[in-house]
Amino acid sequence: MSDHLLTVSQLSCGYPQRPVLETISLPPCRAGTLTAVVGPNAAGKTTLLRAVAGLLPARGNVQFRGQNLLDLPVAELARIVTYMPQSLPRGVALTESRLS
């Protein structure tokens, strides 16, 4: 069994009339390790994370524990993936106890 928790290959995504990422592949994220996505402003970091979480339409392959997230129905994806933006909308609060 592979220790690859998340693998992103040939991922393309963006916004209407504005492609942002084209055929991006990343080294596998392994269980028990820390992975950082770093780069300058407007490099596509947030777009990448939103596409991996299924919040943006994307093409390619996003494997999580051997399952392609891009092929899953929304209800099943929601049971697997959580996305927390850098800033929460006004009036929304989230505490650690609400995540449990």
TrEMBL record:
Assigned keywords, A-Z: Translocase, Transport
Membrane-crossing residue ranges in chain numbering: none
GO MF terms, alphabetically ordered: ATP binding; ATP hydrolysis activity
Ranges for domain ABC transporter: 29-87
A Pfam family that the UniProt record links to this protein: ABC_tran
The protein's role, per its UniProt record: Part of the ABC transporter complex HmuTUV involved in hemin import. Responsible for energy coupling to the transport system.
UniProt cross-references to PANTHER family, sorted A to Z: HEMIN IMPORT ATP-BINDING PROTEIN HMUV (PTHR42794:SF1)
Record-given protein name: ABC transporter domain-containing protein
Source organism per UniProt: Brucella anthropi (Ochrobactrum anthropi)
